[in-house]
Amino acid sequence: MQLICVTPPTIEPIDLATLKAHLLVDSGTFAENITNSPSIYSGLHATTTLYGLIGTGVDVAGKQAVVYLECGPNGATGTVDVKIQEYNGATWADWTGGAFTQVTTANDAATYEIAYTGTASQIRTIAKVLLASCEFGTSIVTNAAITSDDANLTDLIQDAREEVEKITSRKLLTQTWDYILDEFPCDNYIRLPYGNLQTVTSITYKDYAGTVTTMTSGTDYLVETNGDQYGKIVLPYGKSWPCVTLYPSNPITIRFTCGWLTSAAIPKAIKRAVKFAAEDAYYHGDRSEVLKPVIDNLLYNHRLWGSF
To answer: 3-class DSSP state for residue 189?
Structure first.
């Protein structure tokens, strides 16, 4: 009997941000992470034609960003309109939801802010000053999380998932495997490993001459997915396994797909165990004495029992 991974999972039970938050390694000092970049420099700005005051663009790719409008006194009857623009790789365009409330003499001498939640790589502010000169400026504050350890942490997530899979005898997320047998069983069923059986793609067998035959689902066999437990391939009533002389090496191949479809579908206890397993690996086993019992307790009710 052999098990060969055909298609590994394309997602993990937890993402990088979740692990960094768990490990408390998502940022350095406040001063290291925060950058305040002026877009429109503070000062007394003369009246403009339409949005004629163009601020400097600021890089916000992969960062949290907040845009500040810091107002001094407006000239008599003066008004200030400021909005956020984003760069789409070719041109600048207004960002929806990025217009500040108009500043007049009734609400000047104050600071206003708008959090940027778009996806552009750069943003800037533009302003319109009417009727009288006004004192104000805009700045864009970015918070860039430390990313120097991201590659290592991403590897740890995969390692932790594989550790949890080993403990539970499961495969957590969608992946395809070949289950290779030397002979058909005496029983009228074949139990498949890993639980959460999604589909059986094919069952093929090779005879002594090397001729490969593909069995027909629904006619030659039935599939029982059985929820999150072991799935089964079952003979229909009145059917039997092929009676042939099989090839001497790895003659029977069952290709199947198993695992939960999404990380959200994985039980919370399993995802917590993945975080603790990643933590254990992150600290090179120094916390194993504390973490191993926690991981085992979280996974106890989710283990699949039985051997293959």
So the answer is: strand
**DSSP per-residue letters across 245-297:** -B-SSS-EEEEEEESBSSGGGS-HHHHHHHHHHHHHHHTTTTTHHHHHHHHHH
pLDDT digits (tens, 9 = 90+) for 117-147: 999 999 999 999 999 999 999 999 998 766 7
- Best CA proximity match to 274, nearest among 160, 156, 171, 151: 160
Q: Which CATH class is domain 30-143?
A: mainly beta
What backbone phi and psi angles, to 5 degrees, belong to 100?
-75, 155
Alpha-carbon 269 to chain mean position: 18
**pTM > 0.85:** no
Of the candidates 182, 194, 185, 177, the one whose C-alpha atom is nearest the C-alpha of residue 228 is: 194
Q: Where are the domains of the chain?
A: 2-24+149-302, 30-143
CA 88, 90, 92, 96 torsion: positive or negative? negative
For residues 214 and 33, give the distance between their C-alpha atoms in angstroms, rounded to a whole number: 59
